[in-house]
Structure formats: C-alpha cells, structure tokens
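Escalation from tier 1.

The customer reports that the assembly of two entities below gives different structure tokens on two consecutive runs. Tier 1 could not reproduce it. I'm attaching the input and our single run for tier 2 to review.
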Amino acid sequence: MIEATHAPVRRRPLLFILPVLLFALVGAFLAIGLTRDPSTLPSALVGKEAPPFALPPLEGRDSHGFARADLGGEPMLVNVFASWCVPCRVEHPVINRLAGQGVVVHGINYKDRPEDAKAWLAELGDPFRRVGADRDGRVGIEWGVYGVPETFVLDRDGKIAHRHVGPLQPRDVEEKILPLLEKLK
Amino acid sequence: MTWRLLLLLLVLGAPAQAATSPGEMLRDPALEARARTIGKELRCLVCQNQSIDDSDAELARDLRRLVRERLVAGDSDAEVLGFVTERYGDFVLLKPPIRPVTWLLWFGPAALLLLGILLIAAYHRGRRREAPAPAELDPAERARLERLIAGDRGA
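Tier 1 run:
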C-alpha cells in the first residue's frame, strides 16, 4: 500500500492555472470596482438632449427665468446651486472665473428661498446669464440631479456632453471643462 | 411591565415602518399600495443603500411624490419605473435589470458554483483512476499474514 502514495501523479496544468486565472479575474474586478468613487453615479442623460423645462425667474434678480429654449447656439454650462449648499460656496469662485473668461453659464437655483439665493449671489458674485428658480426640485429631477452642486456641459445643440457631480475644482476646469468646451465649439 | 411591552412592540413594528408620512399617501389604497411597491424598488440616490420608501432624505421624498403623481396620472408601474430610470439611469433600480452587461452579475455566482462542482468532480474522478489497485499478495506474504493473524489470536 505504501507504494501507492509514491505513484507518479499525472500533472494537469489546467488545475494549477485555473485558480491563478480566477484570482487575476477577481483581482481585476476589485481593482476597478473599489477604486471608483461610489458617490458619483453614471449619468443617464449624457449624450442626450437636455430635458424640456421652464423655470420662473429668481424673484428680484430679473424677469427672464430659465428654460430649455435658452440652451444651444454655443457650448455652455448649467450649474445647479443653492444658498444652503456648502460645497456650492466653495465652488462659486471657480464658476465666477469661468464666466469671466467668457463661458456662458446658466444657473438652476435648487430648492432655495429667493431672498436667500439673492443675498448669496450678491455676496459671492453672480456669474449666471439666466437663473431659474426650481423651488420644489421638480426640474432637478428632470435633469437627474441628486445632490448639489452639479454642473452640466451642453453642446451647441443643447445636448448634454458632460456632467460633473460635486463642486468644480480648478483642476476639473483645467483638465476637463475647458478642453471639452473648446472641443464643442 | 407596560414599557417592556411597548418596547417589544416598537422593536417588532420597526421593519414595518417606512419613511412615507401620512400626508404623502394617496387616498386610493390600491394606488398607494402600488406606490409603495414601486418605492421599494427605487434607490434613494443620496443614501444609496436605502429605497426611497425607507429613506428620509429630501430627494427620496420628492421621488415618492413623483411616483404618486405619475400613478394618479394613470401610468403603469413599468412606466413609472421607466420615467425615473430615464433620468437617473439603471442605478436607481435596486434590482438591476437582466441585460447582457448584467449577465455576469446575475449568473456569475451560479456559474462559479457550477465550475466549482465540476472541478471537484473532475478531481475525484482523476484520483480514483490514478490510485493503482493494491498488488495481490504473493504466497510468502500471505503465509506471513496468516502467521501474524494467528499470533494475534494466540496472544
């Protein structure tokens, strides 16, 4: 019986390679999955037309409001902001600078009180060409907004080319927004 | 004793509580029931691992209201889910739809299990085939074995 254990074992390379392959596969999935930021969701709207909407003006700012018809003609940004949103405050100088460089930026004032929003813009600067007041967040839902701030880049046809969730950092502007706007021109 | 009973009821009742406040509910119980079912299938995008039916987040409340608006307007359940998915993507569905991109997700675990079973079966079959049958005893060994057994009995 003792000889039996010494019997030469036939080598089956598959049995040895398979675990390694499986490990590599799982490793690859984890490497991709775990390094993605779970708070930035893929947008369903990128590549699609901006949704139809018509927002009333921000009381006391002007009497235009902001609607689907204001989009298109040239590449532009739509920034969703609110005075109660702390990251918006951080982001605002970046938006101001963009507007100063001649980029058209429209604003959607999300679930805000008009007097708060007006004071906020007076304090931090008003970079927007058009501002619409989305008091109940209904238009936000049309845009797939799930947190403020969010910024959309639109092409000349009013199609959504890019969506940025969270505050725009100077680096995002340099690396993504400005090159994209240049490309869309 | 009363407070213990109350505590027990509270604990038992907890899973039944949803974030939906009475003011949001629809008059029509059948419609409200459909709204609740849909709400359980939609992800709250702020808290991500709760459904909008469970979440107290503002966006969840807005979406609950939206679901009810669509139902009152006469949408079917699938149309309501479609309406939300169109704006928020498949991610908003807590149960991902079966599509080629999600095949791995849906069938991967079963495939892995099957692969494991096949490997184990192959391994055992191979081992049985490889182990050579024990050699027959030659007359000298047999005689020695007899002696040993006899000695054992004798002891």
